[in-house]
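User: I need a structural model of SDR family oxidoreductase from Paraconexibacter antarcticus for a docking pre-check later this week. Nothing fancy, just the predicted structure tokens so I can convert them on my end. Input:
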Amino acid sequence: MPTCLVTGGAGFLGSHLCDELLRRGHRVICVDNLETGSLKNIEHIRVPEFAFLQLDIVEPFFVEEQVDFVYHLASPASPIDYLRLPLHTLKVGSYGTHHALGLAKKHRARFLTASTSEVYGDPKVHPQSEDYWGHVNPIGPRGVYDEAKRYAEALTMAYHNQQGVDTSMIRIFNTYGPRMRPFDGRAIPTFMRQALQDQPITVFGDGSQTRSFCYVDDLIRGMIALAESGRHEPCNIGNPDEFTLLELANAVIDVTGSKSEIIFELLPTDDPQQRRPDISRAKEWLDWTPQVSLREGLQKTLDGAGRDGLIGRAR
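Assistant: Understood. Predicted structure tokens for SDR family oxidoreductase:
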């Protein structure tokens, strides 16, 4: 039975990854400091093959039992979180990634770091392929997250080239589903929370900026396939179907049956105007494509989280 260590395992993506790894017959060690993750996301897991360790990976940590895979997902990921925790975000990308890679080296484990489409910044190339270097503002409000992830990629490749660690890098595009925090500041949980309360849905700018939205089950399937592939270069995992934020707002209103109106607010600094993955590598390397449409995924999110779970409480 392979053993997988998942940093950030009590977070949105991490908890879904733990579920799927256990379903596939793996043993899972979940590591989280609960700064942005929650025990509620893993409280349903009651099997002996699962262990939870509450610790902060910016400090060195050790695991005595043999580890076969290290999935490094730990990081504040929403604007609200990394603006609240800028230094910690940078430390997780640097010290945290260093410690996770060191553990993978010790155990000779396959290592996957969860990078992000934010490494492309406000892209001047559309759609974004992995060989595009991006257009990132390192001192803007999003810089602490963008540069933490870019540094984590550089560190991962350095460990691979110099230390021989078996590494992989996934660049995650917008992902959604049950267990997203209603007040994390991202578009889908914000729109759904507002719609379920018949409050005005707040769209930044004129709503013409585009995003592509990948349902969490598709994302996790691609992540595990990449971890098991033997590939070392970055790989985009996301849904190439592109929607404007205004189209997303209308889809949320329709799925929830809301009476909300749409209002417009000032566009945040450095907000990307276009975001869409080129998934040619994922198709070629992993035989992976997303299967869940936006409307189907929104309904699954509504059904899976429930009304109360999507309304939530402000932190």
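Before docking, keep this in mind: The chain has two domains: 3-175+214-237, 182-211+241-275+292-310.
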